[in-house]
């Protein structure tokens, strides 16, 4: 019986932390479907992604661990998604530990350790320093 794993995220400026999560999620089953936060939902999460939804979707769909990508529009859609995709396991990084335990009524809930020392926020911060230094050199 093919096991489906489901996870959600913004996945902006993809890095090894995202890849580790997606790979380990996929390895818990036979198929991985990903709810990708829409640009509008990101605003609701107080996260502005540099790359828009279409761009982030194209990147995710090119990853061998990802079988399908669908839009995440709100916090309330997870139960419907779990039913729609027949998900057996819901996976998130452990920064979300406990937040989605209510889904255990519908499928297994599993939190995976985050990959340390890397985040999109940190990458953006480093980028802004590089850009500022370059601007200073030119002026
Ligand atoms: N992640 C990780 N290690 C990192 C960075 C991220 O394991 N260094 C994981 C996060 O724990 C999450 C996934 O990668 O499970 C996607 O991270 P984000 O794109 O930051 O997603 P987030 O904003 O947490 O959105 O409804 C749930 C939300 O959409 C989750």
Question: What can you see in these coordinates?
Answer:
- With 139 residues, the protein is an alpha/beta fold.
- The chain has a single domain (4-138), classed as Rossmann fold (3-Layer(aba) Sandwich), CATH 3.40.50.
- The chain is 38% helix and 20% strand.
- It contains five helices and five strands; from the N terminus they run βαβααβαββα.
- It has helices at residues 16-26, 39-44, 53-61, 78-85, 120-138; strands at 4-9, 31-37, 68-72, 89-93, 108-112.
- The protein has a five-stranded parallel β-sheet with strand order 3-2-1-4-5.
- Strand 1 (4-9), helix 1 and strand 2 (31-37) form a beta-alpha-beta unit.
- The model has no long low-confidence stretch (mean pLDDT 96).
- The structure holds [cytidine-5'-phosphate] glycerylphosphoric acid ester (C2G).
- [cytidine-5'-phosphate] glycerylphosphoric acid ester binds at residues 8-11, 17-18, 21, 37, 45, 47, 72, 92-93, 95, 114-115, 118-119.
């Amino acid at each position: 019986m093919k096991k489906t794993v489901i996870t959600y995220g913004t996945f902006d400026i993809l890095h090894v932390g995202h890849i580790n999560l997606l790979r380990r999620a996929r390895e818990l089953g036979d198929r991985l479907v990903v709810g990708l936060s829409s640009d509008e939902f990101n605003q609701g999460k107080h996260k502005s992604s540099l790359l828009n939804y279409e761009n982030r979707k194209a990147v995710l769909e090119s990853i061998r661990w990802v079988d399908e990508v669908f839009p995440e529009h709100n916090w309330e859609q997870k139960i419907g998604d779990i039913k729609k995709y027949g998900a057996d396991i819901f996976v998130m990084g452990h920064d979300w530990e406990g937040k989605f335990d209510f889904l255990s009524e519908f499928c297994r809930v599993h939190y995976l350790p985050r990959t340390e020392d890397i985040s999109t926020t940190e990458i953006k911060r480093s980028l802004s320093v590089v850009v500022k230094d370059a601007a200073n050199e030119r002026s």
